[in-house]
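Sample entry (806 residues):
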Amino acid sequence: MSKGTTAHQESTPPRFSRRALVAAATVATATTVFPFSAPAYAAEPAPPLTEPALAADGTNARPVVVPALQEWTGGTGTYRIDDDTRVVVEGRADHQLLALARTLTEEIGEVTGVRLAAPRRGQARRGDIVLRVDPRSVHPKGGELYEREGYELQVAERGLRVTAPGYRGVFYGTRSLLQILLQDDRRTRVPVGTAQDWPHYRLRGFMLDVGRRFFTPGFLRDYLRIMGWFKLNELQLHLNDNEITAPGGDWSKAYDAFRLKSEKKKWDGLAAKDGAYDRRDWDSFEDVAAAHAVTLTPEIDAPAHSRSFVRFRPDIGLGGPNSDHLDLGNPATLAFMKEVFDEFTPWFRSPEVHYGADEYTGPESHYRAYFNGMAAHLRDSLKKRPRAWGSLSRLTKEPAAYDKQVTIHSWNNGWYGPQAAKRDGYTDIVNTNDGLLYVVPFATYYHPLGLDGRYLYDSWEPHVFPGKESLAPFDPVLRGAMSAVWNDLVHATYTEKDVHGLIEKTFGILAQKMWSGTKAAVPYSAFTASMRRGALGPGLQVVGPTLTEPDQLSFRAAAFASSSGYGTKPAAATDGSPVTRWSSRHEREPWLAVDLGKVRGVGRVRLDWGQEYGRSYDIEVSADAKKWAKVAERRDRGAPGRDELAFDAVDARYVRVRGRERRPVRCTLWSVQVFDVPDLARGKATTASSAEVDYLGAALATDGDPGTRWASKYTDGEWIAVDLGSVQGFRRVLLDWEAAAGKDYDLQVCDDGTVWRTVVERRGRTTAGEDAIELPEGTRARYVRMQGRARQSTYGYSLWRFEVRA
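Predicted structure, serialized as tokens:
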């Protein structure tokens, strides 16, 4: 668990922290106003209609799903959704499956823009989508895991069928269907073929520390939906905790919180005043979790991290009331904690309850009695399987004396690694390793800016632990894995949406490696592109996508339009979500404009048209939203879907899509994406003074992938340089720093690779993230270099991106 830096220092593997979704530093404003004599452009032909990809044998290739399908047998042709399509529940149909049919009908409308007929129960007809639970459905390879959560997706031109042994499998099959639709240009086609799909591991989880930072009920409900979208099946909520260190040694001044609120007067004062969940909140979490095939597992943490309980009952504090540990030598302590679990466990529908039990500093004999006593109480009295954080390597020399019918979360090799837990007889182990899977937002340890997606994708699976602790793949004792967010910085000002920004980058990657391992079989950049296109799924209320493509300028930009149809708004075209859309009313020449906030260099626009698509339209730009100039056009487009138009670079603040139909029409756009002028450094030869390790080389800063990085050795004075190939002019440089950022550095240029001249000095920087540097007018060179002078940290210099733009 994350309770400070001690454990991190004890077992840190190579540094794999990811970049933050800090508020993006804006690329430097271009000083040239828009030239209203627009540059020349050529009318491009309408793009060809795309069909689903084909395999080498001419059958349909495996469709893109995150996580990837285990097995696919391709056919020929496509199944198409139209407004006559129905969702039909066939065979045994309980209320949960019927509710899923209703939800899926609405979700297909969100994803495709097609309004489906009402769902029904009974016999299917041609063109229907059938949902069926068949307990007799089995798969030889999937075995028990298929029976628990597997499904078959059968697609024919005449209809589509999802069959599974249970509800969870049917639900997951519907997620795959929706993702396939989102990957299709027209959003209405599914390639003919059959998929069999099942997970590699029983537990595919995520843990969120709500004890030290309150997350709103709406956020948690959305996260349950997102987890179901990625086939992650367990959310563990860490429901109580406190500040790591008492201010001045006085625990009465330390932050603490317990997040469950009972209606019984006996418990008045235990729940946190700045946010707690009552029974109605918890029931809503459970309902959403069940609908989305997620188990909600509660964690009430004691006997350490227990300031809330000591505050409520000062007599049970270790050494007195000035403590965050329980006095386990006091008989009243165990009795009190049993009462706490007795009160709240009836709320929990999960068959398991986590009771913490790590990092205790009191007598070992007292700790052992508590560990075993609480495990027995949960199992025998409350009928729940107990879970605990692994700590026995540190806390005892007699592991044989501890209850073995406990699921152990192996969180740190020094406290209790998986090999030790296995040797000691534990048969249910979860990989929650701190060095690989912990995010502590905006701290200086673990992964403060998000997990390392490239490392996870290329090198990690649930059996992988740091050092020599890895288990064999699919070891029977390994139940699965769980990433975790620990909100150690209780006084920091970040929000729940900031935390989401750190998590979203690797959620799909973790799901992939826990569900079907390496079955994605595509490069990291292609996988992350498919994650962006599928985003987070439909139905979200609070959380939205945060992932963008390199060079995109319009993400969450303001937008305005000639009109908006019922229930739609212009901002839907720039919010990053693939399931929100703007529609005009019926009118001549409807238009939608994007405000980039300032004059920017613009060179490309991508449109994602809905079913009511523009057949003829112009791309126009402006500096003031009054005088517009055309830079590109499209005529006689023949289908909905994506359209990309490139044009000579211009400077503009506003970009507009303007219909050119001669009659009144209605247009629908899922998104309008505006892209920067090309990055002159992308893919060019890049060198550096050093690399921390071989796989963090200089070329990774200019490869165009925001998830890869260069890192230097841990010394001042390191540098990285890019060769643009020829002497040319440029106006802007972007340095996107990882947590190992430069404090003092120079931006230098050179014509011959020998004599360098400094054009910009940076001094005294104290943050990571983007540094957008505007260069002196007339800057020309072949080589560009970041020359380090001093570092912000004890690590070296590390850049996610090194961009050079005209």
